[in-house]
Amino acid sequence: MCRRFTAALYSSDTRRDVGPGDAYERAVRFASSTLAGQSPAANQDGRWATWAEHRAYVDAVVEPFVDALQPADTVITARRTVRVTSTPLGEDSWRGWTEHSLLDCMLRRGGSDGPGWRVAEYEIRQAALR
Question: Residue 114's CB: how many other CB atoms inside 10 A?
Fold first, then answer.
């Protein structure tokens, strides 16, 4: 679930999206209803104007990441960490900074969101830029 959430979260494409919040709207399909309610903050991304100028999309690669300190899963909670490498690429051959990040997801199962797993919380840790 964390992988799918992250892939959607980093799926910005100025050629089809109205704004930076569109990727978040795709990601909330995998999130709890509480997390989905935070979507207005996703519309604030200072990089969007530059990306739109170049008709850019984000090329993102999401891979599992093993965190040795990750707590054991329970029946209703689990933690997963993924590594994401993302680069905005423009139609005009423009290339933005490549970001390397770790995304920690707290997954929760059951409750008002139904029987399946949902991302209840997440944290992005910047690893590097180049």
Answer: 11
In the chain, how many H helices and how many E strands? 4, 4
- Distance between CA 7 and CA 3 in Å, rounded? 6
The structure's pTM equals 0.90
Reference 94, options 10, 14, 8; nearest CA is 14
pLDDT for the residue numbered 12? 95
Res 39 pLDDT > 80: no
pLDDT at residue 41 is higher than 70: no
Element (H, E) at 33: helix 33-36
Contact (CB, 8 A) for 81 and 2: yes
